[in-house]
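== Polypeptide entry ==
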Amino acid sequence: MNLLILVLIALVAFAIALKTYGGYLGKLVGLDDSKKTPAHTMTDGVDYVPAKAPVLMGHHFASIAGGGPIVGPIAASCFGWLPCFLWIVIGSIFIGGVHDFMALISSVRHEGKTVGEVVGKNVGKKAKILFLIFIWLALVLVVAVFAILVAKTFAASSSVATASTLMMLIAIGMGFALYRKGMALGTVTIVGVVLLFVAFWIGVSAPFLSFSFNTWIWILFVYIFFASSMPVWVLLQPRDYLSSFLLYTALGGAVLGILFGAPQLELPAFTAFKQPVGYLFPMLFVVIACGAISGFHSLCSSGTTSKQLNKETDAKVIGYGAMLLEGLLAVIALGTAAMLTKEGLADGLANWGGPVGVFSHGIGSFLANLGIPEQIGITFGALTVSSFLLTSLDTATRLGRYALEELTADWAPAISNRYVATIITIAAGGGLALSGSWSAIWPVFGASNQLLAGLALLGATAWLAHMGKKYTVTLYPMAFMIIVTVFALLNMIFTNFGKGNYLLGFVSVVLLILAGFVVNEGMQAINRFKTEVKPE
């Protein structure tokens, strides 16, 4: 099998889905540009800041992509490339895209509040509290796993660390140029992108940042405190917009490299139902945590993106379209693993720095087909991944702060202070990061992340039912994700306690209990709305 065929199938399927199913979802919720979004009605210059569609698309895509669609498909390729490919394409179109879009537009219709607030308004106060606790715990896992991955990448490559640091400085300059000097977006974009590739050249030719893994972990904790506390226009929005050009370049270069190189898939289409990570069901749908659907996306959609949406119709491309683009990234990431033999993949994971290394070497191979030196391509691939890992890291910290603020606003105002909430979130995630490796945390993160997606779909289903809209588009995906992740969490509980990893085992138990209560409250609310309002 040729990798080019898989990429073309995915491209065609996603293009058709954006036009047809994306359009249907927009009509279902009644997207209306005459309704002012919270970015305009609640502008505060810190979190609520209207953003032009290209800028917000870049920010949102960078936020949701992170390392998930890269790490997950490569880790799940142990089952073979075919089940991974089918889940990425079908899941992105009918589950992940729906989840992201509904999380975004429901938040916009609830003053830009998080999905936790949507659950509270449409399910009940008790469900909101339990859901916010679940969200915060899930985000602590995100902070832990991505802190480890970024620190590993930076410790392994001073070139990537140097270029990433310079890129953040460029982004801060772009933010001030756009929002304080009023410069045109086109001018700022051109200058920023040129400087971005200058930063990459400096990183490759004259790297100057080299620290150990543990040192990078502590540096990252300091960084995310400031990055997640500053107004979004200072760093978050321009850095994510700038990062998107890295990914667009990597995606475009990879597709062209695949077109010219037509690499063959060496990994078997299917290997075995049982692997060290667990059984194909449910673990395939959990390990590919972001390539098909991710609960973290609902927090990005409702936590930061909804506060910056300029007009409602932008939600179709930004909410639904960005998930399809992430699906394409996941297919390419899968391809970087599937080009290797089973033994070659195992060797790459062991000696190239894990899934990030496998992806970087794959990108280097694709770009080599275009005449670009392979080592330059490998470094570029690593820089692309690290920029999105950083985005996930500080976005998760900001979202954790939001959740903790909402959770404690009424009974512990001292904790709801944004700086205190940020410190608590970082301390919890940092402690977990220093206690174990990404490979131990990732399956629990994946299970909690996918269960979070199921709960977010539950909130969207309750919202649609409350409005008397047809809610099967979210009900069936919700049921599937909850069933899958309950089985996965049960597997994680037995696995971690069996290995003596009591902390992750305990976290899995708490997440499962919280989810059970939220699901019970949600289904009661949906049944109540069914009797009150007849769906369209």
About this structure: The CA atoms of residues 162 and 186 lie 26 Å apart. The longest helix spans residues 374-408. The beta strands are 274-275, 278-279. The radius of gyration is 21 Å.
